[in-house]
Design a protein that fits this description.
Oligomer: single chain
Largest sheet: 7 strands, mixed
Bound molecules: pyridoxal-5'-phosphate
CATH superfamily of the largest domain: Type I PLP-dependent aspartate aminotransferase-like (Major domain)
Shape: globular
CATH topology of the largest domain: Aspartate Aminotransferase, domain 2
Number of strands: 14
CATH class of the largest domain: Alpha Beta
Number of domains: 2
Strand content: 5-15%
Distance between the termini: 50 Å
Helix content: 40-55%
Structural class: alpha/beta
Low-confidence stretches: none
Order of helices and strands: HHHEHHEHEHEHEHEHEEHHHEEEHEEEH
Number of helices: 15
Strand order of the largest sheet: 2-8-7-6-5-3-4
């Protein structure tokens, strides 16, 4: 059968995640015997803390191996509500939570529940690669506003205001950000909040990196501003980054009760509940000892303290200091159009391909995040790997 008939127009409009594509290329090169260092995937290198793994084993032994309610167990929802109180100082009801198969799925459910065809959602670039694709999958239009490293990736609020149209339904906030590591200041969050109030918009706040903040910063959620903002903010979060639980696939939204219920209905038709054992493990993650969270955060900060000056020492690389998460997003526009060791580099994708071929280092091109002239390095890997990776990059760019 011919592909044009086999594959829908919607499916045809979707590209595979570029981060995954880069990671796959690195794996293929590794399989062929090449010593490739991967800096492409946003995944903590730490093992999941032992108490969480024990809770999962216990859940299996206790027979928690059956279906649960589609949008999560009451116990996990309560643990999420309690964690929101502890971490954000906010009171929610368990009925406001819908648990999904990872933060990515919680976000997709958010867009599906929120957006109608033709609606617009404002997204800041550089953005996490899945945001625009997910908004499009929900039939709506992403509207991109660029931000830059020289002011810590804060958006120009006048530009945000000007981008709001009658079709705008939501503004997406992701602080700390993947891929930039940028952290919105309180003024930025308050400015976005005011625009949302003036135009009656929803804020979707992806807070998956909120526990990974540097230099003593504290997390600011738009939902903390006042009751009106709390009511118009949908928080998306998960266990993946905070507890080194990427493979367990648990994420959630906290939203108005009717919204969370609808999202649960969508999920009940699509996937049913997220893994029962992972849900039990996530209760332990959220309610058990939190020491590992602080230890991992401190390790990321030490790596950040090494990698930023080391990259800035390479001519032509301008690496802003990330305030959180575990990414740097250096500007490499100096290299565009230049010839390095006989290879002419036209754009960030060619730059990253050059690095993987000549330095055996995999990274992600900034154009995948709507920011040409930059690239992303994930420093969620050992200090030894970071040192060796930077050494290789410096050598390949000589
Ligand atoms: C900004 C951001 N949001 C959400 C997610 C989703 O995480 P997960 O689906 O693994 O919970 C990620 C993962 O890379 C992310 O970087």
């Amino acid at each position: 059968m011919d592909d044009a008939r086999l594959i829908s127009t919607l499916a045809n409009s979707v590209e595979a995640s570029p981060t995954m594509a880069m990671a796959t290329l690195a794996k293929e090169m590794k399989a062929s015997g090449k010593d490739v260092l991967s800096f492409a995937v946003g995944e903590p290198d730490f093992p999941t803390p032992a108490n969480i793994c024990e809770a999962a084993k216990k859940a299996i032994d206790d027979g928690q191996t059956k279906y649960t309610p589609a949008s999560g167990t009451p116990e996990l929802k309560q643990a999420i509500v309690d964690a929101a109180k502890r971490d954000l100082g906010l009171e929610y009801e368990a009925s406001q939570v819908a648990v999904s198969n990872g933060g990515k799925h919680a976000l997709m459910n958010t867009w599906r529940t929120l957006l109608d065809p033709g609606d617009e959602a404002i997204i800041f670039a550089p953005y996490w690669v899945s945001y625009p694709a997910q908004v499009e999958l929900a039939g709506a239009e992403p509207v991109i506003i660029k931000t830059f490293g020289d002011n810590g990736f804060q958006p120009d609020l006048d530009e945000v205001k000007a981008a709001v149209t009658a079709k705008t339904k939501a503004i997406l906030v992701n602080s700390p950000s993947n891929p930039s590591g940028g952290v919105f200041t309180r003024e930025t969050i308050e400015g976005i909040a005011r625009i949302a109030q003036e135009s009656d918009l929803t804020i979707v706040s992806d807070e998956i990196y909120k526990h990974i903040l540097f230099d003593g910063r504290s997390h600011v959620s738009p939902a903390q501003i006042d009751d009106d903002l709390k009511a118009r903010t949908i928080i998306v979060d998960g266990v993946a980054k905070t507890y080194a639980m990427t493979g367990w696939r648990i994420g959630w939204m906290i939203a108005p009760p009717s919204f969370a219920k609808k999202a649960g209905s969508i999920q009940s038709q699509e996937t049913s509940n997220p893994c029962a054992i992972s849900q039990a493990a996530s209760i332990e993650a959220l309610t058990g000892p939190q020491d590992a969270v602080g230890e991992m955060r401190a390790a990321f900060e030490r790596r950040r303290d090494y990698i930023v000056p080391a990259l800035n020492a390479i001519p032509g690389i301008n690496c802003p200091d990330p305030g959180g998460a575990f990414y740097v997003f250096p500007d490499i526009s100096d290299y565009m159009g230049k010839t390095v060791q006989g290879v002419t580099i036209k754009n960030s994708q060619e730059f990253c391909l050059y690095l993987i071929e000549h330095a055996h280092v995999s990274t992600v091109h900034g154009s995948a995040s709507g920011s040409e002239g930059c690239f992303r390095i994930s420093f969620a890997c050992s200090m030894e790997q970071i040192e060796e990776g930077v050494r290789r990059i410096a050598k390949a760019l000589q």
